[in-house]
Amino acid sequence: MLDARPAATASLRSLAWGALALLAGASAALLPVEVAGGLLVAAALGLALLIEPVLALVMMVCVAPLKVLIETEAPIALPGDPGQWTFALAVGVWAVWRASRARTRPLPRSRVAAALAIVLLGFAPSLFAATSTGAWLSEAAKWAVMIVVALLVVDLGARGRWTWLAFGVVLAAALQAVIGLYQFFGGSGAPHLWISNYTRFRAFGTFGQPNPFSAFMGLTLPLTLGMGYGYLRQAWAAWRADDRPAALRSALIVAAYAVCALLIAAGLIAAWGRGAWLGAAAALGVMAVFAPRRRVIGLGLLAAAGALGVALWMAGLVPASIEARITNTLNEFVGFGDVRGVFVTNENFSTVERMAHWQAALDMASAHPVAGVGLGNYEVVYSEYALARWPHALGHAHNDYLNILAETGIIGLVLALTGWALIVGWTARALSLRPPILHGLALGLLGTWTHLAVHSLFDKLTVNNLFLHIGVMLGLLALADARRRAAEDSENVVFQSY
Question: What is residue 494's predicted lDDT score, i.e. its pLDDT?
Fold first, then answer.
């Protein structure tokens, strides 16, 4: 029997082109030029999404960072935010795409999504302890959305389309980096963001704050480097095979990733986020170890990089402002115990404030060790556990591990660590993939999870719609994991046939 899917797709496209033509004619005849132009742009966008539904996810990762900008600058209060709108659009486009398939397709599934479900399961008991059910549902919805996004990537990202999604995440970060660098060099900024003797502003992009901006830079830089490394290996393999056109195509993609990596790295520095710097350093170290096939070479690269860093520091070649930032970080976080007796100065204010919230989180966990105070309820109950001089909640504990422990107790923290341990393990195993781009993807994601693990010691990274980007990257891992398992199964079949 002939596959009816090409015919169904052709019919859908013909219908869409016809509808667009009718809309264009009617709009031009009946509506003002501005309205007609807007409708045509919207119709063209809708048509593009119907033809290539993966573009809806690319749009989501590029638009989601505008959340705070629109909330603060929109003349009227809008329902929802760009991340919610584009997520709903992506789900709708996916539903239409699946409905257009003439042959029944199984719903997407992945054990990566199952690992996220384990995390969410660990959060469930805290619902019964939550003071605010609405806050619990709002936070739980983030994890449910990450599961859905990961599954959408699995379904829509097959047959190489996942490379568009990977570049979409990188492109979104690069665009934010450009905005952040403009701010850093004096373009704009609030007075409290002055740094470097009032000559620069901390970069914050469209996030409104430097911390989530720096988190976005730190999470995407490893992915950018990993994908660039994968395409570089592919270009070299094509060159050795005397396939010059393929080598040139891959080299151009390497150049695009290299430009994005430079912008994102510059944005990371300009954000002046110490937690993000530490996370990036850890991520680059892990990637250096695991990039070569032989771990001994990787360890040698890491040792050489460390020696170079020490030499630059000792020679005074590290910029003074960055050196002072790192030195202050080491001194402040190592030197404090109970912050209630610490004398607060302009220099240590942010560190003492953060540690005061850590102590509040520990007090919450001590009072509710099993199920916590309720997912998303840290800010709701903060006044009951606030230290003197620190009455104002910051939304979370500025340490995701302590935040999870305080909100969901031992049950939530153990299952959250279990779920992420599975994800990291599957990422490490995906490094065995032979195709260079898939290997580069796995390497980049391993760096991303490393940054997430380290930066989470100082902040919470599933804020400002960043959970949507994390969901996409988890979906990319799910695709790589499925490819690895399929390769292992085929090798086992060949082995058993002998």
Answer: 44
Backbone angles phi, psi at 104, to 5 degrees: -60, 130
Partners of 194 in the beta sheet? 201
Q: Report the sign of the C-alpha dihedral through residues 493, 496, 497, 498, in that order.
A: positive
The C-alpha angle 413, 221, 157, rounded to 5 degrees, equals 80
Instruction: Please state, in angstroms and rounded to a whole number, the distance separating the CA atoms of residues 284 and 447.
Output: 7
H-assigned helices in 241-294: 244-271, 274-290
Residues of the chain with pLDDT under 50: 1-4, 494-498
Q: Which residue has the tokens 């016809």?
A: 18
Contact predicate 326/272, CB 8 Å: no
Tell me the helices (H) and strands (E) count for the chain, helix number first: 18, 2
Per-residue model confidence (pLDDT) at position 238: 96
How far apart (Å, rounded) are the C-alpha atoms in residues 380 and 399?
17
Query: Whose CA is closest to 465, among 25, 178, 82, 111?
Result: 82
Rg of the Cα atoms in the chain: 24
**Percent helix, strand and coil across the chain, each to the nearest 5:** 75, 0, 25
Query: What pTM does this model have?
Result: 0.89
CA distance 280 to 275: 9
